[in-house]
Design a protein that fits this description.
alpha/beta, TIM Barrel, 9-stranded mixed sheet, 23% strand, binds iron/sulfur cluster
Length: 214
């Protein structure tokens, strides 16, 4: 069972429940292959059964860390790009974190389901909609990339529903279908054929898992 929790002591986003941070290579979507410093925040109430970071769901497991510490860890690496992910990072007000990262001249990418209110300022927003808690409308105009996880063929219609919602409000978004990792062998052939028939979509694979890096 997932429970949405709040942190009264978050001080408006100057403290955040940090699961982990690490410098690696982005493996998914448009920025795949780019070195990036990842900031993974704890807490998610979306509940995807195939989630590969279930350990991040309960924010109570991750004592809040001040954003100066988080950003100093990023700035100590050669990274020029930051990926803020989770969990669901939009469970927290991210304006202070984004402002501090920007003061170091870092570009900021967001990975979100879009299921909680928008905050922060980003150079790139990857919207990954989930059926169990769909995105709020405010995310569709903002998405630079729509990334839909395909677990079975019924997810193609979910992908198209979300693509239509993006196209109602903007025309610059890129569209990706990504096989759910544990179902890769089963769904990849369907995704390949679907993308060949619907060339407005691209395939995203989780390259970091093939490379055995975080
Ligand atoms: S939204 Fe992301 S972090 Fe949350 S359950 Fe789904 S895959 Fe996991």
């Amino acid at each position: 069972m997932t429970v949405k929790r709040t942190y009264p002591s978050l001080e408006g986003g100057r403290l955040l429940p940090l699961v982990e941070s690490f410098y690696t290579i982005q493996g998914e979507g448009f920025h795949s292959g780019k070195p990036a410093f990842f900031i993974r925040l704890g807490g998610c109430d979306v509940g995807c059964r195939w989630c590969d970071s279930k350990e991040s769901w309960n924010p109570d497991r991750f004592p809040p860390v001040d954003i100066e510490t988080i950003v100093s860890q990023a700035a100590a690496t050669p990274a020029k790009s930051i990926v803020i992910t989770g969990g669901e990072p939009m469970n927290y007000p991210l304006d202070p974190l984004c402002g501090l990262l920007k003061s170091y001249g870092l570009e900021i990418f967001l990975e979100t389901s879009g299921s909680s209110p928008m905050s922060g300022h980003f150079d790139w927003i990857c919207l990954s909609p989930k059926k169990s808690k769909p995105p709020r409308d405010e995310f569709y105009p903002l998405a630079d990339e729509l990334k839909v996880i395909i677990e079975d063929v019924s997810d193609f219609e979910w992908a198209e529903q979300n693509r239509r919602k993006v196209l109602e409000v903007q025309g610059r978004c890129l569209f990706y279908l990504q096989p759910e990792w544990s179902r890769m062998k089963t769904v990849a052939p369907y995704i390949i054929e679907y993308v060949k028939e619907h060339p407005e979509w691209n395939i995203s694979i989780q390259a970091h898992k093939f490379l055995h890096i975080p």
